[in-house]
Amino acid sequence: MKKSILFLAVLSICMNAFATETKLMVRAKAKDAKFVGSSIGGAHVIVRNAVNGEILAEGNTTGSTGNTDLIMKSAHERYTQLSDDKTAGFLAVVDIDEPTFVRVEVLSPINKKNAQVHASTELWLIPGKDILGDGVVVEIPGFVIDILKPNTHQYIALESISEAGLSIEANIVMMCGCPIQKDGIWDSDLMEVKAIVHKDGAAFAEISLDNPAQNTFTGTLGISEAGYYQITVYAYNSKTGNTGVDKINYVVRG
Predict the structure, then answer these.
(1) pLDDT lower than 70: segments of the chain
(2) Would you state the pLDDT for residue 11?
(3) Which interval of the chain is the signal sequence (predicted)?
(4) Which residues touch 10 (CB under 8 Å, ≥6 apart)?
(5) How high is the pLDDT of residue 18?
(6) Which of 60, 77, 136, 177 is the residue whose CA sits 20 to 30 A from 219?
(7) Which residues contact 238 (CB under 8 A, 6 or more apart)?
């Protein structure tokens, strides 16, 4: 028994002795926007052995969203590097002793569960052959949408709703946290933002939301009856095909 344990220990040491440190830079990039970094909490990265599921490295992307002019305003030729040493990323350092097929999983943005996307890709890692620079860039589609008014499960007295109606307000940003506003780089005029309303499980209304201030979208919903209401706010950009959704439920009491 002792000899078996000793043999396994020696075998493990020998295997580790042949393992080679290999670096892989992983970045999460919002669709039609910049890199997901510290300003929105980062993206969570898991690098797994694709064959047996073993986690080889894990951590969050940190750093800035990157150079706006380079990423969003410049034409990109082949081999153009979009990142620099300050751009958000996660440097995975793994020890492998043979070419290993890995799955790179990205959960982004890690702190916004209602908008979080799980994206992944796969590639071969070769011992000692680092993949740096931009590294592996995983695209994160969507918008981060937070409905601010009404509140989730808010009870609202019918008599408190003005003749103008109930205010609907949502905060919307790109998946990297980049701002949306009229005539901005991320122009709200190119986006369709609407609130779909259901009452007691049936379709009730659909209204367009305006963008009076950066990231803020508002509208007014006429309500004359008590009931259980659900609001679904969506954003859609026909140029990019980018979409995002948030939902809340509230109650109007008579």
Answers:
(1) 1-17
(2) 47
(3) 1-19
(4) none
(5) 78
(6) 177
(7) 190, 192
Euclidean distance between CA atoms 116 and 57, whole angstroms: 21
Amino acid making up residue 128: G
d(C-alpha 197, C-alpha 220), whole Å: 12
Name the helix (H) or strand (E) containing 10: helix 2-18
Under a CB-based contact definition with an 8 Å cutoff, are residues 253 and 226 in contact? yes
What b/e string do you get for 130-167 counting C-beta neighbours within 10 Å, with b at 16 or more?
Answer: ebeebbbbbebebbbbbbeebeeeeebeeeebeeeebe
Tokens of 182: 């009229």
Same fold, 19-140 and 143-253: yes
**In the chain, what are the domain boundaries?**
19-140, 143-253
What is 19-140's CATH number?
2.60.40
